[in-house]
Amino acid sequence: MVLYKNDIAELKNLISSHTKTFLLLDENTEKHCLKVLDFIDFQNVVKIIIPSGEQNKNIETVKYIWAQLIGNLADRNALLINVGGGMVSDIGGFAASCYQRGIDFINIPTTLLAMIDAAIGGKTGIDFHGLKNQIGVFSQPLAVVILLEFLETLPERELLSGLAEIIKYGFIVDKTFLDAQLQKNPVNLVNPVFIKKAIEVKNEITCQDTTEQGRRKILNFGHTVGHALETYLFDTRDSLKHGEGVALGMLSALFLSEKYCGLNHETTLYYKNIYRKNFNRFDFGKLPVDELVEIMRHDKKNTDGNIRFVLISDLEKPVYDVVVKPEDIVESIKYLIDYLNDENYWGK
Ligand SMILES: NC(=O)c1ccc[n+]([C@@H]2O[C@H](COP(=O)([O-])OP(=O)(O)OC[C@H]3O[C@@H](n4cnc5c(N)ncnc54)[C@H](O)[C@@H]3O)[C@@H](O)[C@H]2O)c1
Fold it and tell me: Which residues lie closer than 8 Å to 22 by C-beta, 6 or more apart?
């Protein structure tokens, strides 16, 4: 259930039907986001504050959350409200789903990426052994509450990270998301119409296929190479935001789409322009392409040791479970690096 500002009464009803309410925040959302939640009676909630960032989406932080729940006598009818970006909703959803075999949780996303993607659909989890989202469960939030005011304090780089996922929806589901990203004047990143539409896309696809047996897989467009880059650069000076990885990964996926699905080259050129208009020209130096392919071997979409991609045969025509040969993956990453290094293109 997705609730908006007009539905706050409904949210209050959900809260009051539980024995105790816990608010999970990271250090930034504690600082910036509590003021938007002035309808919550803070006297009667327990705040759990965790350190921010992907490097803390791990078992140590989960243990801390569980210890706080136990220490404050959370019973099976307690409620955990996750107030934050995808890091908080992923880890909070996971912690809640395992605590006493599962307590209710609500997601109140505070980043663009979490509003239109991470907080919706019931994927919860943590990183483990250097692998992203390796441990987790599918578990649906009781509700997802969308309040756009949170975006006022969100840094631009985080907004752009969310925009990448909106652009992804443009390629796989609804091309009306796309042209606006090429307009001459910078697109207003907080575009309520696009945000609402993107939420509907994610909600519709994930409700139809809650455990990713079929069509939901299309949402991983750009994620195979994107996750590998994010994982490889994790904790380095060049670490990537989730959406930045996806934005880069989509170019590799389009290269492969031409080769495997007959996509026309104009669509790739169109994306290159969208990328240049909106995202950073990263300089990664030398990337160990074979190591990236090794990381992809752990991707959860794989079966039988094959690396599977989501590709497109045209705009709005995604194809999932495409087995791609390692040598072609290497080519697609080289294509991406050549694009970022092309002085003529970026100089124009
Ligand atoms: N479960 C899913 O379906 C799904 C989908 C996509 C991504 N994800 C996961 O989501 C995570 C990325 O989410 P994210 O991009 O939201 O990152 P994030 O949660 O790390 O938030 C980004 C940064 O913004 C700060 N922040 C959050 N809200 C703020 C606000 N309103 N004002 C100021 N600062 C604020 C956070 O403290 C953090 O430093 C990754 O772990 C990714 O794997 C999950």
Answer: 45, 46, 47, 48, 68, 69, 72, 74, 78, 79, 80, 81
